[in-house]
Amino acid sequence: MTPAYGALVPAGSPKPAFIFDLDGTLIDSVYQHVLAWSAALERIGLSLAVWRIHRRIGMSGGLLVQALGREIQQPLSRDQIETLRELHAAEFERYAAGLRPLPGACELLRRLTEVGVRYAIATSGATSAATPSLKALAIGEDIPVITRDDVRHAKPDPELFLVAAQRLNVSQSEAIVVGDSVWDLLAARRAGSLAVGVLSGGCGEDELQRAGAYRVYQDPADLLAHLDEVGVRTPH
After folding, report:
1. Domain range spanning residue 160?
2. DSSP conformational letter for 97
3. What pLDDT is stored for residue 226 in this prediction?
4. Taking a C-beta distance cutoff of 8 angstroms, is the pair 141, 120 a contact?
5. Per-residue pLDDT tens over the stretch 66-78
6. Among 43, 150, 151, 156, which residue has the least CB neighbours within 10 Å?
7. pLDDT of 10
8. How many angstroms separate the CA atoms of 120 and 211, rounded?
9. Percent of all residues in the chain with a pLDDT value above 90, rounded to a whole number
10. In this predicted structure, what is the pLDDT of residue 11?
11. Helix spans in 45-171 (H)
12. Structurally, how many domains does the chain consist of?
């Protein structure tokens, strides 16, 4: 059973800080990633049902490609893995101009700023892939952004979230990680942070809860409407 929030953040403690995943959490981009991986596989003569690809979105690129190799029951060479990652990046770039924030994402970040709650962005994607999404969200230079380029291992390893908490100068117990995939929530649990799930990446409520989500919301707009449930007090 997931511990109650009050057991993690004692009364009178500082305001929590948020660490947001990017794809599927703040930006409507999960299915674009799925299609990009599908096209990359096709270009090297491999094929896999897109629902199987979707189940792996949120993992680091290297682990994702290894997992896809298991799904097609064909071990991939190091060269094939690197080629797939490059092809995925090229395919995903085709969608970059059309990426949009999820409902309520910009408003949520703006509201947190208004009430003095700090936040960071932590994504398994490379900086080059994240840049269009960060621009769409109007993320300022004062907001910590941690990408795959900043760590040795991405999700489900906790390093992205550990670095994000350090950049925010908060302890892991003060950080609330918001993500759309089981890989986000697994990394949050390993980091020692409270995890909150959103359904906007396509994972179900039950599986997010089983992965450790304290609460699950439809999307950023739904989380914004229930900030009090995660310890954020906002003036009426």
Report:
1. 7-29+100-230
2. G
3. 96
4. no
5. 888 888 877 788 8
6. 43
7. 44
8. 22
9. 65
10. 46
11. 50-54, 61-71, 78-93, 105-114, 127-136, 159-168
12. 2
Using an 8 Å Cβ cutoff, are 33 and 92 in contact?
A: yes
Paired sense of beta strands 17-20 and 119-122, if any? parallel
Omega cis (within 30) before 16: no
Q: Are 182 and 207 in contact (CB under 8 A)?
A: yes
What span, in angstroms and rounded, lies between the C-alpha atoms of 192 and 158? 9
| Count of CA atoms in the C-beta half-sphere (13 A) of 148 | 19
* Pair (51, 83) in one structural domain: yes
Given 74, 94, 114, the domain boundary residue is: 94
Q: How far is CA 22 from CA 45, 62, 137, 215, in A?
A: 30, 18, 10, 18
Angstrom CA distances, 209 to 77, 147, 186, 198, 232, stand at 35, 25, 11, 10, 21
Q: Which two tokens stand for residue 185?
A: 């929530």
pLDDT at 236: 63
The pair phi, psi for residue 99, each rounded to 5°, is -70, 140
Tokens 């994607």, residue located: 125
Distances (CA, A) of 95 to 37, 107, 116: 12, 23, 34
> In a 3-state reduction of DSSP, which class is residue 17?
strand
Q: Which residues of the chain have pLDDT under 50?
A: 1-12
> Using one digit for the tens of pLDDT, what is the confidence trace for 112-160?
999 999 999 999 988 988 999 999 999 999 999 999 999 998 889 999 9
The neighbour count for residue 209, using CB atoms within 10 Å, is 16
User: Which residue from 211, 171, 219, 209 is spatially nearest to 20, judged by alpha carbons?
Assistant: 219
DSSP class of residue 141 equals T
